[in-house]
Amino acid sequence: MTPAEYAAWRRDKTPHFLLDVRQPEEYATARIEGAVLIPMNDLPGRLSELPKDRPVVVMCHHGMRSAHAVHHLREAGYDALNLAGGIDAWSRDIDRAVPNY
């Protein structure tokens, strides 16, 4: 999912769950409002915190960690989508108020 597609979902209030798989210090530096932080290494033990009744949009810094998380979430039966380019692309292309690091 591109940042523009995700921005449209937010604008249109499309039901979803935004999962941030970065580390706490990254999340403290820059985040998208409403994102729930579950660091990548913690994700396997916290799957029960994710909804199965709506898509899970997964993000990280550039999109690599989130791509891995999406793969595992799909295998576990989740409707998961990767935010391409991560918070870096979001900051650059959609919301320049979000710090770029």
**SSE ordering:** HEHEEHEH
* Arithmetic mean pLDDT: 97
Number of helices: 4
**Main CATH class:** Alpha Beta
* Whole-number tally of structural domains: 1
Instruction: Report the radius of gyration as a whole number of Å.
Output: 12 Å
Shape: globular
CATH topology assignment: Oxidized Rhodanese, domain 1
The structural class is alpha/beta
The order of strands across the largest sheet is 2-1-3-4
The helix content is 25-40%
Task: Describe the 3D structure.
- With 101 residues, this protein is α/β, with parallel strands linked by helices.
- It has a single domain (3-93), classed as Oxidized Rhodanese, domain 1, CATH 3.40.250.10.
- 36% of the residues lie in helices and 13% in strands.
- The chain contains 4 helices and 4 strands.
- The chain has helices at 3-12, 24-29, 64-75, 86-93; strands spanning 17-20, 36-37, 56-59, 80-82.
- The protein has a 4-stranded parallel sheet with strand order 2-1-3-4, with helices on one face.
Outline:
This protein is 36% helix and 13% strand. The chain is α/β, with parallel strands linked by helices and 101 residues long.
From the structure above, extract its key features.
alpha/beta, Oxidized Rhodanese, domain 1, globular, 101 residues, 36% helix, 4 strands
Topology:
Layout: H1 3-12, E1 17-20, H2 24-29, E2 36-37, E3 56-59, H3 64-75, E4 80-82, H4 86-93
Parallel strand pairs: 1-2, 1-3, 3-4
